[in-house]
Amino acid sequence: MTEPGSSRSRPKGAYDVFLSFRGKDTRKNFTDHLYTALLQAGIYTFRDDNELTRGDEISKHLLEAIQESKISIVVFSKGYASSRWCLNELVEILECKKRNTDQILLPIFYDINPSDVREQVGSFAKAFDKHEERFKEKAKQWREALEEAGNLSGWNLNDMADG
């Protein structure tokens, strides 16, 4: 029998939740606990480090998971903006939300303020100093996505970095 959250145990398009997070920041604490709690509640959740097998086309598989999920939970953390992968996921999540009004985006602000995301200050500003050198056009798109997501109502979990 396969694990409840595995793509092999559910038909295509059956994810309830797509979980977007910066692995270095939250994988071993908050995100792992959230993922486990969702699975235990019977909520089928896509988490890239758990769902992708060697040889899978990562970008296509992730895009399909985002597009087919009913809800996207984005865990914003201090290192989120340093990951181009996370930023590209966020752009796709917001585009899907616009195309499909039934899709829901739930932001979680983990050990940062929503204003850090919205205004790209602190660690987000440092990340964009690097991004804008190499990815000027993409950086503009990423900034707009962060501003939009930072304006959404979500959960502010300040001072939670220790789990």
From TrEMBL:
Any one GO BP annotation for this protein: signal transduction
Segments forming domain TIR: 13-163
The keyword NAD is assigned to this record: yes
InterPro entries tied to this protein: TIR_dom, Toll_tir_struct_dom_sf
Superkingdom, natural source: Eukaryota
Sorted UniProt keywords: NAD
Record's protein name: TIR domain-containing protein
